[in-house]
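We modelled each protein-ligand pair independently. The example shown here corresponds to the coenzyme A entry; the chain sequence is given first, followed by the ligand as SMILES.
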Amino acid sequence: MDEIEYRPGLDGVPAVQTRISFLDLEHEQIIIRGYDLIELAKQLSYLEVGYLLLYGDLPQPDQLNALEATIRRHQAAIPPDLGPIYAALGERLHPMDALRTGISALAADQADQGGLDPLRGDGLEDTLIRLWALVPVMIAQAHSARTHKPFPEPRADLPFAANFLWMLTGVKPSPLETQVFDRLLILYSEHEMPNSTFAARVIASSLADPYGALTGAVAALKGPLHGGANEAVMQMLQAVSGPEAMEAYLLDRLQAKARIMGFGHRVYMHRPDPRAVMTKALLADLVSEKGGSALKAMCEVGERVMREQKGLYPNLDYYAAPVYHLLGIATELFTPIFFAARTAGLAAHLREQYGNNRLFRPRVIYLGPRGLTVKDGDRG
Ligand SMILES: CC(C)(COP(=O)(O)OP(=O)(O)OC[C@H]1O[C@@H](n2cnc3c(N)ncnc32)[C@H](O)[C@@H]1OP(=O)(O)O)[C@@H](O)C(=O)NCCC(=O)NCCS
């Protein structure tokens, strides 16, 4: 055992064999089922990419229609228990914790029908799509309860992204807002083996049900070193008075050895994240329609200073934060939206894990003592 090289954080260690996605650093591409994620984001809708993730092929029109219909069916059947649960949680919990609670509660319906066995029949796909459909609804429902506002019920006349934005803000989005939000959902939909995907697969590998696996994933994704960064970026941008103050603020924080949220990445670290490059362009589109040039300028100063000072590039969370802000979304919903988008990728990973399972059970490099015996004097 002791000869196996130890890599803290399993840095660079392959965790699974997968056909879903791969960060191809050599070609600077995020490969999704063989396609370049950025090309997918430019050309397809989020639901098309979700279908591709889950089933491995791009959908034919009838397949896409069927998926849309299934999602609408699930969104129209919000379990009645959820409203009272969110009302009881009130303002106490962060929306990510409320989502974690909601996903767990969602299992109740299927538990009643004995349907939580992930390997039983063809129920798995429907469960995964149900989760994918209801995560956005739960985020919006919990937010409405927390802010004491009426819940904008899902609208069957709007496409997935426009409906999601509607539920979050209570305002029907413009075509550009819908397109920008849809593209960001795609950019967040899948990213190989981040901490939360690993967590979900580890849980699923014990043949625990998908509700449990996603509950674990949402807990993992909340952390500020992972999905929580987009919320933290917005808090930073709001703490700085404008583009002129941004450089001094960052130099000060770096001097204090602080970690600047929205920069760096375990895999890219000193290379540009292609998703951040595209999101920066989406921000420019949005600013040209809605204003917000000071926010954009602030981000650009931040990007320059971090490259000059640390050789670090922005990750997706950095430019996603101002985009969500300009879309009128509350800051504490940024990380839940990341999770909602990622539910498509997680569904694909769970399907793959259950389909070819081996229990995760690694070993350790033991650094503690051996051979101790309990003697009378050892106990207080
Ligand atoms: C994502 C992240 C956790 C990856 O970190 P990691 O692979 O574990 O790398 P380390 O934490 O060991 O960092 C390596 C070096 O880069 C520095 N660094 C990395 N990200 C940094 C950041 N955002 N701000 C300042 N310094 C940073 C570290 O201080 C460290 O410097 P040192 O060697 O002088 O101590 C890290 O970049 C980070 O904390 N980023 C901010 C949070 C964030 O945006 N997360 C979203 C990721 S998509």
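The radius of gyration is 22 Å.
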